[in-house]
Amino acid sequence: MQATHSRPRQPTLPIDCRVVSNPSFTRPAAPMIAPSILSADFARLADEAAAVAGSEWLHVDVMDAHFVPNLTLGLPVVQSLLKATDIPLDCHLMIDDPGRWAPPYAEAGAHNVTFHAEAADDPVAVARDIRAAGAKAGLSVKPNTPIEPYLEILREFDTLLVMSVEPGFGGQSFIPHVLDKARTVRRLVDAGELRLLVEIDGGINADTIEQAAEAGVDCFVAGSAVYSAADPGAAVRALRAQAAAARAH
Questions:
Q1: Which terminal residue of the chain, N or C, has fewer Cβ atoms less than 10 Å from its own Cβ?
Q2: pTM greater than 0.85
Q3: Binding-site annotation, residues for substrate
Q4: Is the predicted pLDDT of residue 19 greater than 80, yes or no?
Q5: Which residues are catalytic?
């Protein structure tokens, strides 16, 4: 399943990645779990959010049927979710024209608004608009998009979201080669050259979370692994414990 954009657009601003933003950034002491409501029961979203109340973030996939071949919820549902839960919303915009559509999610109260590098002509401008609207800014890259062309602009972001499946649908199998991107960015963060979270999305479950944690990932988006469990809250705690143990090795 391929999205309509096959090649990433290159960054337009020559920014030295040694000049970092987020001076107060510190790596979270414990791994973060972000349950994906793409795998939840859309007729019971408030209840599904309550079921994972101990999560660090709640991941919300927004798809426009153009950038990816699927259509999901949009801004009105996000606004309703914000009234129904205290969990910070991590909005992942798999959409065309993020410069137009991303800032309203920040204005609505989303904690983190992530858009795709492949969809933006000027990722830095979009990130600055998101931050100006009051949210953290995230950049996402698809599995076959190299991270190297974007390293120089990552200082403008609070999160890098590495896709470990092709974006568009939940329940896909994990693509392990994407962990090289996480390792690359983890080294830069640990060296003090970047200050941002490394997040991963796609195929995260009990069989894959440890290798992602060992690669340096901070935040793990988990859909089916959480919402297919009899007790979603317990599933979140178990995944967090697995990631913490792997990180400690």
A1: C
A2: yes
A3: 36, 92, 168-171, 201-203, 223-224
A4: no
A5: 61, 201
